[in-house]
Amino acid sequence: MVPATVLAASLLAAGCAVKPEPLTAEENLARVRKDLGVVLAPQEPLTKAVSMDEAMARAIKYNLDERVKLMEVAVATDQLELSRYDMLPRVVAAAGYVGRNNDAGSESLNLATGRRTGESTTATDKHRRTGDLAFTWNVLDFGVSYLRARQNANLVLIADERRRRVVQGIMQDVRTAYWRAVAAERLLKRLAPVEKRVEGARRDARTLEALRVQAPLQALNYTRSLVETLRQLQSLRRELVAAKSQLGALMGLPPGEPFEIELPPAGVMKAPPKLDVAVEALETYALLNRPELLEESYNQRISADETWRSLLKLLPGIDVNSALRYDSNSFLLNQRWADYGARISWNLINLISAPATKSYAEAQEELVAFRRQALSMAVLSQVHVAVLQFQELKQEFALTAEQADLDTRIRSQYTNVGEAGQVGELGVIQSEVTALLSDLRRDLVLADLHNAYARVMVSAGVDPLPETMAADDLPTLTQAVAKGLSSWQERANSVLRVKDLAAAPRTAEKDAAKETKTEAAKPEAPKPEPVTQEPARQAIPAAAAEPAPAPVKAAAPAPAPAAQAAAPAAAPVATASFSPVIQADLGAYASHRLAEQEWGIIAKRLGAEGNGVGALYVSTRRSQDGKTIVQLRASGFADRSAAERFCHRVKDSQRECSVRTLSAQERQADSLPANRLAAL
Question: Where are the domains of the chain?
Fold first, then answer.
């Protein structure tokens, strides 16, 4: 007892002795060295002038903010891997030693006579060893852990969307800093000779003032004009000198490291960036790709899983356990044995709190949905504002460029008359400074215009890089950035407009209701021959290249004899020989690839419940602008109730679905081999 008491007292005294300890000078120096080893890590050498694409590629690869977000994604991924182990049962191995200073003896009482036996007995050794290997599994905890793992999986996706948002912001900053650095490179070379000339004129003015060659007031005004001109030039230098350093910091270069900038051609400096995307297309692209909206969508998944977790906690817990045990007690008949059992427990108070728990969870889901919808409106507003700012700056750039051209021509005239001695040197200097300021204003407005262009890209959620890349070396990154920046407008133009997306579900519901009424009025037809449904990744109808075929009429003109000889005779289309076909309309998409991706998500979500159901891609052209719309449908249902159950499961996963009935003519048109195209 004495050693145990001394040990406990020592530990207690050590715990009470804890006090704040600041970093020592050696620890602080070691921290700085470690951080500098990461911050100033060697990069790929700068062997040539840096273009804008390479600057963006270097920012993606070496920018520290991007590295932080990549580490957050890695941490979230590791957390997901760790949470998967929570679903496993607990297997605990234990070993111990038990001892006492005397025997664990006892007497017994005769219940019939109420007398003690008077004999002291023991059934336990003074010193014994124990060990066990226990298996425990709580079924309810397994369900909760499974939902927590799903939430962590969505947290990985959220971390990746935050990384995308940081990359998009870095790309905007790099574009702005690059064009300001270009303006600095172009004008700082012209600034030094003008400053030198103004400084010489100021010395001459002071000499003339000292010699009293001119009137004192005239000489002072002349000197003041020169000083004001020199102040303007120094203000220009201060505004431009930091642009290149900012670009280097964004690229992750050590402060003060020299590098050259690849100057764009003169034609590019005079031409603003082109934005050939309609605002409606940018709106849809933003709603589909903005990281903030996708993050809120993943938050909605997390909230839905949290609702299920809350409901699972209301259920009774079922514990299943088994163990292998050992005890060295010599009085035991069996020193090694196995035991097993099961236990169910239920907190009945949960039945009272169940309605409140469910209401709270549903309110949380609605809050996330409302927040995403409000953010959608904010995104649409940001797209409109970004496009308006770009258009306004484009007009301002045109006026600024015209003013710079006029000031350049005026400077030429002042130079000519100055050489002829018709004006003084001050007028020539002021014309040169004015032309220099106009050129600077034009280049800065061009930089602001490129910043507005980048803001449009950020508001639309444009990624400069593809989802997957073969390598992450700098040349590959540079090529990928250049390709992404040159092709994003084409991708944005390929999506549906917001009005079309909003009208598509309503149109599908009206068509389904109309077709249902029509088919209900028809007499029952014989059962059609089974037709093999096309799998999701094999073919799409030929309507992708032309409008949907018109219904077949009874009195059709006979084909030419040559055509009859070339092609086999086709069976006539009889409307009464086919019964209706049930399909589920899952929405309209701008391309086959997007529809295929959506079907992959639905099929993965349904799992075995979707066996026997196949996907069809029906493509048509809109009459307004000729754009292709791919309608994703599911078929292979036994009856309409099966299709409605399928739609109910799809709607549970936050997707639209409506049941439609295909007429016999539509069925025959879809089954013709000539109406199929090769798979994309």
Answer: 581-671
Closest by CA position to 668, among listed 584, 579, 588, 587: 579
Q: Is the domain covering 581-671 a CATH 1.10.150.20 domain?
A: no
Asked if 543 and 633 count as a contact pair (C-beta separation under 8 A), the reply is no
Closest CA to 316 of 148, 150, 141: 141
Contact, 489 vs 468, CB < 8 A? no
CA angle 416, 417, 422 (to 5 degrees): 160
Query: How many C-beta neighbours within 10 Å does residue 55 have?
Result: 25
Classified as helix, coil or strand, 154 is: helix
Cβ-count burial 208-234 (b if 16+ within 10 Å, e if not): ebeeeeeeeeebeebbebbeebbebbe
Distance CA 387, CA 392 (A): 9
Residues facing residue 589 across a β-bridge:
630
pLDDT tens digit sequence for 564-612? 333 333 333 333 323 347 888 888 887 888 888 888 888 877 776 666 7
Q: How far apart, in Å, are the Cα atoms of 58 and each of 43, 167, 257?
A: 9, 12, 14
- Please tell me the number of Cα atoms within 13 Å of 427 on its side-chain side: 13
Residue 542 gets which letter from DSSP? G
Say which residue the tokens 């207690």 belong to: 12
DSSP, res 638: S
Query: How far apart are alpha carbons 409 and 439 in whole angstroms?
Result: 12
Given phi > 0 = left and psi -120 to 50 = alpha, else beta, which region is 636?
left
**What is the structure's pLDDT at 32?**
83
The C-alpha atoms of residue 48 and residue 261 are separated, in whole angstroms, by 9
Question: For every residue of 313-349, which 3-state class applies, written as one string?
Answer: CCCCEEEEEEEEEEECCCCCCCCEEEEEEEEEECCCH
Chain mean position to CA 464: 12
Contact partners, residue 133, CB within 8 Å, separation at least 6: 91, 92, 93, 94, 323, 324
**Which single residue is written with the structure tokens 């040559």?**
562
Alpha-carbon distance 52 to 627, whole Å? 34
Residue 196 in tokens: 């030198």
pLDDT of residue 453: 92
Listed as ranges, residues in the chain with pLDDT below 70 are: 1, 14-15, 17-18, 39, 41-42, 208, 213-215, 419-426, 467-471, 501-580, 608-611, 621-626, 652-655, 662-680
Q: What is the mean pLDDT of the chain?
A: 76
Q: Is the dihedral of CA 222, 225, 231, 233 positive or negative?
A: negative
Q: Could you give the 3-state DSSP secondary structure of residue 102?
A: coil
Task: Please name every residue paired with 133 in a beta bridge, in sequence order, or none if there are none.
Answer: 93, 324
Say which residues have a Cβ less than 8 Å from residue 283's Cβ, sequence separation at least 6.
Answer: 380, 383, 497, 498
Q: Which amino acid is at 293?
A: L
Residue 41, Cα to own-chain centre: how many angstroms? 28
Is the whole model's pTM more than 0.70, yes or no?
no
